[in-house]
Amino acid sequence: MYKKILLIVLVFALSLSFYGCKAIDVMKGLVSEEESEVEIVRSDEEDIEISNDVNMRDTVLYFQNENGYLVPVKREIPWETGIAKAALSNMIADPVVTEDIAQIGLMPIIPAGTEIIGMSINDGLCKVNFTNDILNYQSKKEEENIVKGIVYTLTEFPTIDKVQFMFEGQIINELEYGTKVAQPIERKDINLLDIGANGDSRIVVYYKGTSNGEYEYYVPVTLPISGDNVNVSKALRELFNGPPELTGLYTDIPLGVELSDVSVREGVAYIDINLESNEAISSQVQFDMMSKNIGLTLQQFNDIAGYEILIEGKTLEEAGLEFFEPEGLPVFANEY
Prior knowledge:
Blueprint: H1 2-36, E1 56-64, E2 70-78, H2 83-89, H3 95-102, E3 116-122, E4 125-130, H4 140-154, E5 162-167, E6 185-186, E7 201-211, E8 215-225, H5 232-241, E9 257-265, E10 268-275, H6 284-298, E11 306-311
Parallel strand pairs: 4-5, 10-11
Antiparallel strand pairs: 1-2, 3-4, 5-6, 7-8, 9-10
Helix pairs in contact: 5-6
């Protein structure tokens, strides 16, 4: 009897040992697969924007203009698994992409010949592995635009908060012109202007840019400001004051229109403006352009869901203007 019990115990122990080894092998396989190399995974599980064509997805990509400004552009790209990779592929300077966006006066930011070896997304961190062709640029501005343009494009996806750059499997400390890439990078300081202002705070204002005067588009610009209180009023005053000199930028705020006051109640920003005369805004189109310029600048404030424009404290109807107010904040800056 004692021998039978001992035999059963030995068989059970051997079974556990065998199963344990198999379990460890499985675990090793999982770890090895995760560490083998970054792979393409879905990045589109939340808040998907679908275009009218069910096979296409509205996606914001970043290109650059002749003055080196990064410009966000809504493009429709084919719906597919791993669409974040597809987004970056549509930013590489191949003949098709280059010719396509040349029609709106812009240029790709990722050098020709670049390939995306792999990509992974986990807990908000996107690791993306490029071939070294991505390092074929000629200036500090191009280097900055590659890094920021990729980070801003990928973080348009709700599952991505920051980006770790890899170059043929390696993480390096900094690029040729000093851009630090050793650590994951978040959105920060797009088109930062050096205007000689002191202050650690930053504010984003949308101005207008153009290519050869033929094409125009909205350009998000980061301005350093003094003080820690970054708010709606400061952002709009920068917009109404106009862009700094020698930037080649302008606004859709018509001449004869001045900002009087800004207040926020229950998520709605009330923008009170003064007009030199009712002719300062001559049409619904002009009013819509001004409204969009204001709305884009308001996008950076998470507590703002909508806005209304007042004329010297009166609604448009009370002021005798037959214009329609904007319906919510604009979704895209530039659509082509």
